[in-house]
Amino acid sequence: MNGTLPTITLPSGQILPALGLGTWMMGEISDAATDEIAAVNHALDLGMTVIDTAEIYADGGLEHIIGQALKSRRDEAYLVSKVAPWNASRDGTISACEVSLKRLGTDCLDLYLLHWRGEHPLTDTVDAFETLKRQGKIKAWGVSNFDVDDMEELFAVENGANCQANQILYNLSRRGVEYDLLPWCQERGIAIMAYSPIEQGRLLRHRELIHVAKANQATPAQVALAFLLERDNVLPIPKTTATTRIEENRGSVDLDLTEDDQARLDAAFPPPQRKQPLEML
To answer: Per UniProt, what is one Pfam family of this protein (predicted)?
Structure first.
């Protein structure tokens, strides 16, 4: 296993490892908490220090679990959480952040995201984010599930260009963002956090992906992650609670896909030829 992870750079200049840990759907089963805490710690051990969560995951319960996992290791993690759209008014965002901080057992989030667009004006949400920054409760902010028109609207808002990241559904079977959203963000240095990078495991059964994996003495998951890791400023955040899977995901950074591999993947998962609506899970 390679000693160092590739990195991405946020517009602020903050450098992050280009592979993190997603936690969506953790926290739902009380008996699984021990394994979930172990998974977070194992990811940190392997240098996958970007830990992503949200206030809505397990109705806030997952933030408690993440807080337990980071109790003695907070400084090692780059901690990301999200405000739900129905809480994203100016005062609501500030209150939601304070609740998340208490559940996580920390006084500051490294990155705070708007989970998706809702009824509250972006001006109010951005104002709240900037206030939280001034108060030292978050270091940076971003968005999630924003398409190009959303990003353009965001950048037209005062301080909207302070956005550091856009977390979106992006994997081999969901390449629509490559037509316009991915280059739009790349041109501005905005990090793309790719959630569900192996399509919640469904990609692993794809015949061509299995073929490319065998040709590289790798696993299908590693090929799917390597595909994303080769994109500029893209940070996949695969979710798993199995330590063996975390190690497998970590091993994807050692895989260099050849031009032939890329051609086979393009044939099996064609890149977009026209604008497509942003997909979400």
So the answer is: Aldo_ket_red
